[in-house]
Structures are given as structure tokens and as C-alpha cells.
Amino acid sequence: MKILVTVKRVPDPETVVKIAPDGVGITTDNVKWVINPFDEIAIEEGLRLKEKVSGTEVVLVSIGLKTAQEQLRTGLAMGADRAILVLSDQALEPLAVARVLQKLVDQEKPDLVILGKQAIDDDSNCVGQMLAELLGWPQATFASKVELGGDQRSTKVTREVDGGLETLATPLPAIVTADLRLNEPRYASLPGIMKARKKEMKEIPVADLGVDVTPKARIVKLETPPKRTGGRKVGSVQELVQVLHNEAKVI
Questions:
Q1: C-alpha–C-alpha distance, residues 76 and 21, integer Å
Q2: What pLDDT digit, counting tens, does each position of 225-243 carry?
Q3: Residue 16 is part of which domain span?
Q4: How many domains does the chain have?
Q5: What is the DSSP string of 141-178?
Q6: Residue 11: which CATH number?
């Protein structure tokens, strides 16, 4: 098998994000960058499938600046076999990302593509679905469990839905997006870190893929949420109802 796993470079969830002076981006000074947590779960799932099926290759792919090499090396240290970095000076919109991935899928011909269900920086949650549509492949999103069929030509995915759990059976090739409860990612071992330095990392300029990455939308303004005001005590249920109705206007 060949499994393609996406990796996005995002600010550490513990980082305090500040809006840039221009008001349309964030300041990147002193920001720690990490693998998108959902993508890290996707990497782990690819590695677990690799351990179950001998001869499986796990290929990582990221889109962005050369600095994304750091996150790809981390994924390689976890156990992935090789990586592809599509170089782009600008952040791509979800549809452009899906079209870039479509080109890579056409080249690599993987049996399974695993993505994090969303990136924690923009929370778009649509690249996996768009890619499935572009490829005409079946998809299983928000996966909390992934099992391969005995013939390794199908997969059974348990996914989280509003009403509980849903199990889908799909033929391969297919698209799967990883949810939070799918697994617990492993730490990169010291031998893994040493081996990662020698693993292949191919760089491809985005222009070479022939994909139109022109933005279709632009950020007009970013604002921090307003500070929450302090609460107050009320003397009775009747007073609470009046406040909620007359002041908060929520009932």
C-alpha cells in the first residue's frame, strides 16, 4: 500500500496570537510552529496501518515555505518514509490546496489519503471533502476508527456524527479525515530523529504543478474578541428572567 498524509505548519495552540499592525494577518515573531494536531493524528494512523500491512509506504506532503521542512522532518522522525514539500510563498485557499493535492495524488497514485479533519489556524474543514470530489473518490470524514479489509482493497471507518457513531465501508482508493479521538500520536524517538535526516524530501515549486492558486477572497480585517464583562448576581428567578429578556435579549 501507499498512504499519502497531509501536514500543515500552524502556530502552537499554546502560543498567544497577536494581530499584525496591518490588521489582516498575525505577527509571526517569537511564534512557535508545530504540526497541525489533527494532521499529527493522521500521520500516526498512517504509521499504524503501515505496521499492520508489510510493504506499506507512508508519504507526507505539505504546502508552504521552506520552513515547513521542520514539521515534515518531525513526521519523518515519527516513522514516515519520505516527504514532499510544495513550495508556495503565499497561503493557499482550501480549493487551491485540494487542487494541488489532486496533482500529487495523480503523480503518486496512493491507495489512501489521510488528512486532519481541519487545521487549527483557519478551521476551514473542507480540503478533504473537496479533494474527494475532485478525484471522484469515496470519503469518510471525522474518523474515530479506521480498519482495512482483509484484502486490503477496502476500508471500514467509524466516524463521529451528531447522533453518535456511523460506520462506513468504502473501496480503496479513498479519502479519510482524522478526528481527535482516532489515536494518540507517538513521540519521535532519538533513532527516528537521526534517520529522518537521511530520508528523502522532495521540493516542488507550486508553479510546476500548473494549478491556479490565485486567491478568490481576501481578508478585510481581523479583530480580537471583545473582553468579557464581569457577571452579576440577581436576587431571584423572576429578576433573572427579566434581565435575560430586557437586557441580554436572549429570550
A1: 36
A2: 888 877 888 899 999 999 8
A3: 2-216
A4: 1
A5: EEEEEEEE-TTSSEEEEEEEETTEEEEEEEESSEEEEE
A6: 3.40.50.620
